[in-house]
Every structure is written in C-alpha cells, then in structure tokens.
Amino acid sequence: MPVQLHSGSAGDDHGDEARIEIVPLIDIMFFLLASFMMVSLSMTQLNRVPVNLPEASTGIPDPKAPPYQIAIDPNGVITWDAKIVTLSEITARLQKEAAPDETRVLISADADSRHKNVLDVLNAVRVAGIEKVSFESKTPPP
Predict the structure, then answer these.
(1) CA-CA-CA-CA torsion sign (89, 95, 100, 102)
(2) Using one digit for the tens of pLDDT, what is the confidence trace for 71-108?
(3) What are the C-alpha distances in Å from 77 to residues 59, 102, 109, 117, 122?
(4) Residue 124 — pLDDT band, cuts 50, 70, 90?
(5) DSSP string, 68-136
(6) Domains of the chain, with CATH numbers?
(7) pTM above 0.70, yes or no
(8) To 5 degrees, how large is the angle CA 87–CA 67–CA 95?
C-alpha cells in the first residue's frame, strides 16, 4: 500500500505521491562515468620514444592500442617502453609474457630508418610466435 504525502491543510487532497525521478540519476551516473574515464586516460603516461612516422593515406585506424609497442629510430636503435633492447630480448620477452594467439604488437619505425631494421624487428616478433603485428604511420595532411 503506497504512502501518500499531503501538504497543506487537511481538506486539501491532490493525491500526489512522492516520486524519485530515475532519468536524472542515470544521466548523472553516465556523466560521472565519462568524467572518470577521461581523467584516468589523461593520467596514463606513455613511455614512447619520439619517431618521425612515415605517412600512409591508405592506413586503417586501429581503435585498440596494442599492449606491446616497439620503436625504431633513424639510427636503427630499437626501444621498448623507452628502454633500448636487442632483437633477442624482444623475442625472449614476448615468449615469456605474451599469449601468441591474443597478443598484438605495434611497430613504430621512423620514416628515415632502414627497411632491414624494421624487418629484423618483425622477424624477432614472429619468432616469438606473435602473428598480429601492426605498423604505425601518420595520415598525410589533406
């Protein structure tokens, strides 16, 4: 049996029931969720080495950032999480940490790096059993 709240005099009978509006509460919860997500994304710090990426107008954007990002600078120096690594270290770390069927690797090679260096890193990743490899590029200006 619902409880009816009356305001005013005893003879004033409007029949209004107290209600809690759910829609504004849902709106506030979505706003708080979105705010939390934006703040947490801005707090993540990417340990990346700046490289001059080559341009590719036919590239397809990948919304999921792979957990493993390897960079190659113009001098052929290979970095992973802002630390210089060798090809054998890449293979060993991926074999130890990664699940071959699910792991994705992103290779960010400088536009001036040698093709051989990129292929060496790709080979080290493939030796570790990783099949999902992407190459980072930038979109040319229109």
Answers:
(1) negative
(2) 999 888 999 888 899 999 989 988 888 777 778 888 88
(3) 25, 27, 10, 9, 14
(4) very high
(5) EEEEE-TT--EEETTEE--HHHHHHHHHHH--TTT-EEEEEE-TTS-HHHHHHHHHHHHHTT--EEEE-
(6) 68-135 (3.30.420.270)
(7) no
(8) 45
